Amino acid sequence: MIEEEVIHFLIVVFPIYMAAFTLYAVRAVKGPTIPDIVLALDAMTYDLAAFLAVLAIFFRSPILIPTAIVLALWVYALDIYVAKYLESKEMGG
């Protein structure tokens, strides 16, 4: 069944996710430059969106899929905003 495969996937992948999440958090806090911090936050958020998609399969809850999509799109918009700021050194507009 699909639930058993998802459980096996979670058992194998969850420790890897947690290790990666910890490394991303360290980079987000220590990051010497703003692009390092943004990249760490991007990686954390995209991993969270992927994990939400896996949980949507496991819990058979379709509401988690649009949540993951909105989260990924929000981070993409943040990337564009930060890139625009770094390029022109002005906020907004």
What does this entry look like structurally?
By secondary structure, the chain is mostly helical. It is 86% helix and 0% strand. The protein has helices at residues 2-30, 34-59, 64-88. The chain is flat, with a radius of gyration of 16 Å.
Number of domains: 1
Structural category: mainly alpha
The major sheet is characterized as: none
User: How large is the radius of gyration?
Assistant: 16 Å
Amino- and carboxy-terminal Cα gap: 51 Å
How large a portion of the residues is in β-strands, by DSSP E?
under 5%
What is the tally of beta strands?
0
Helix tally?
A: 3
Task: Summarize the helices and strands and which ones pair or pack.
Elements: H1 2-30, H2 34-59, H3 64-88
List keywords for this structure.
93 residues; mainly alpha; 3 helices
